[in-house]
Input
Amino acid sequence: MLAAVGAETLEDLFRSIPEGLRLRRALDVPRALDEIALFAEMRRLAARNETDHPPFVGAGAYPHHVPPVVDQLLLRGEFFTAYTPYQPEVSQGTLQALFEWQTFVCLLTGLDVANASMYDGASATAEAALMAARVTDRRKIVISAAVHPEYRRVLRTYLASTHDEIVTVPYGDDGRTDLAALARAVDDQTAAVIIGYPNFFGVVDAVGEASSLARKAGALSVAVTTEAVALGLLKGPGELGADVAVGTFQSFGNALNFGGPAPGFFATRQENVRQMPGRLCGATVDKHGRRGFVLTLSTREQHIRRERATSNICTNAGLCALAATIHLALLGRRGLAQLARVNYARARLLSDAMRRAGFGLRFAGPTFNEMAFEVGDAEAVVARLAKRGLAAGAPLARWYPDDPRMKGALLCVATELHAPELIEMFAQAVKE
Output
């Protein structure tokens, strides 16, 4: 191989790597195993990830039931091997599925048009800010501190090269965005107002009021949703006045998978369609009048327009989006509404059980299926219950170390997977 590439030694291949960065020891990897031994080792490692019960951790990735039919349909060769929908004559199934995905996103968000999915909720949020800057020709992004902290970090990364200004607005004792502080932050230089729905604390934030403030200033309002099952019970962000809705549909058809991958969604009003990132799938008819599907409005991507593109998306978690689409199709309108009601009811059971065990809510605002409890030392609770096979929740001080209100706050979720008797056992375990 060295002779074929014209190199005398292995070192010659790495000449472009600075000397100080080269590894001078053998790689720290175990010895090779045969297939039987390898499977046994993988089972041993996988067993370390097992918990005895569904996790009570949400914080942007939620435990939900995934019907077995979802994975069975994903494994069909027409879907599993069709990486790209660029050739419509051979990708009709993929294009139709993405068209249906767009339809579901529009139905749940109450907006006019959606794209064919995004990498994830965080990048969708950042793309919404970039689109707002293009539409308004402004450079100031106002975002609530109650939006997922990791989403806000991704936003900062995206905007580091554009030099757009990011202004973070605090949250109040009810867990919702401080509207008085938001009103002071929004001005005639604001491009976007970004707010969670529900927000990172599980609280249903004031999207309508925030959207009204944005509209009066000539800015776009953006609602960010990480727990999409909530949209089966709550009004769509578009119905409340939001101009853009983004987030993730991980809750539909996608297992936790240690936090990813999961499909992001992006929806907006019709007048912004040519400034949207990514691609859209459209329905049409062929010369014989038969219905077909095509890829439309993909000219905003970097593979076509290079530096003039509105987005550098070159893939979009399409298989994950298909999984969500299958799950939503199985649920239907009534099924999704019923699932949302079950989640809401289980969260009320959790709240009642924790209250009886002596733990109050950190925030007084309205919640869906996730809420923060005051448990004293949240980190200790999580560590001790982990030894009992319980993933207890997310200590909020990890993300908000400078807020003394968060010291004992434990963010917990209850979904259809959390049976009433499990919820009672969990509350008693926290008490113990």
